[in-house]
Amino acid sequence: MRSLFVLLVLMIFAQAGLVEARAGDEDIIAEVNKAAEALDAAFERQDVEAVKQLMTPNHIAVTPYYPGPQNVDEQIASLPDLKYAQTIVGDVDVSLIGDDAALRTFQAKLEGTFKGVPIARHAFVTQLMAKQDGTWVERFYQVTALKFSDEKRTRCKYLIGTYLTENRPKGQSGGSFISRSLLSLGRGHLLLFTDSGEGGEAGFASFTDGRGSWYCRRGEDGTTRITGTTLDFTAPSAGEATGGIGRLDFDLTFNGERKTIGGTAMLYLLPLDGDPLNDATLKDAREFEITGQRVGAH
After folding, report:
1. What is the percent of the chain with per-residue pLDDT over 90, rounded to a whole number?
2. What is d(CA 9, CA 170) in angstroms, rounded to the nearest whole number?
3. Mean pLDDT highest for which of 12-16, 127-131, 220-224?
4. 210, 230 in Cβ contact below 8 A?
5. What is the pLDDT of residue 173?
6. DSSP classification of residue 259
7. What phi and psi values does residue 258 have, to the nearest 5 degrees?
8. SS3 (DSSP) at 181
9. How far is 163 from 214, CA to CA, in rounded Å?
10. The dihedral of CA 63, 69, 75, 77: what is its sign?
11. Distinct helix (H) and strand (E) counts, the chain
12. Are 84 and 47 in contact (CB under 8 A)?
């Protein structure tokens, strides 16, 4: 977070070279880590005095969210705009540079915002630590945002598309379907639902298309699971002043080889002034079994 000084660091390496491991280096590395961790904690709790004490007066920070390189005063001034928490991923590498400098690097997951805008979640952190008056302090801090492409994101990407489904009441999977639907899993986790039964039936009002969101996860059995929710509106029938709100909760499994989905949907109906986003208000669900095939281009 904190990249203009990379060249400077490389020059230091070229001139001084990394010091070979010596007796006592483990203790020095422990001191470096302790000081760096204390500074991270000071930023998280926005402790101005601790931040100043744990950085050199000429400290520079470069981050994806700062408008440019920031000196100590600029970092202190922007502390109220920073909501920040860090989790280190994997090992921390500390390389000693002479007796009074160390380079500390690691990957991290970051949580928080700067001026209300989410900060980069996955990052590579570089810290140049210096020993001044017997105390380790930070001289330079840089975070490089990483384009994170883990197995989960790759897995979810292949779910995107539209599926033609057959819908049956729960427990009637061997019987004829009561409706067919187009279920679309879009980018940005947009979920769209169009049903052949939107014209209504005896005792069931007509309704609109549904819109909502979805996400995927790996189930305990290794399957790819899809969880989603859509909302729609029922149209007022004759003699009724208002319609209502319908909520569908999907719990599906994806078969990557066959490009199919299967699982259940829970339907909840609420009055128009109800709160369909409050789970505590949901009751009297109708459960459906859904199977679907992805629609391909021909």
Report:
1. 53
2. 65
3. 127-131
4. yes
5. 58
6. T
7. -95, -10
8. strand
9. 14
10. negative
11. 5, 14
12. no
**In the numeric block, which tokens belong to residue 260?**
């199919």
Q: Which of 14-18, 113-117, 167-171, 184-188 has the lowest mean pLDDT?
A: 14-18
pTM: 0.51
What domains does the chain contain, in order, with CATH numbers?
6-145 (3.10.450.50), 153-294 (2.40.128)
What span, in angstroms and rounded, lies between the C-alpha atoms of 128 and 221? 44
pLDDT of residue 239: 61
Tokens in use for 126? 């570089």
For residue 113, pLDDT over 60 is answered with yes
Asked whether the beta carbons of 148 and 109 are under 8 A apart, the reply is: no
Residue owning tokens 């997951």: 109
Bridge partner residues of 264 (DSSP)? 251, 289
Angle at CA 125, nearest 5°, toward 122 and 130? 165
For residue 153, what are its two tokens?
A: 């994101």
- Euclidean distance between CA atoms 293 and 274, whole angstroms: 34
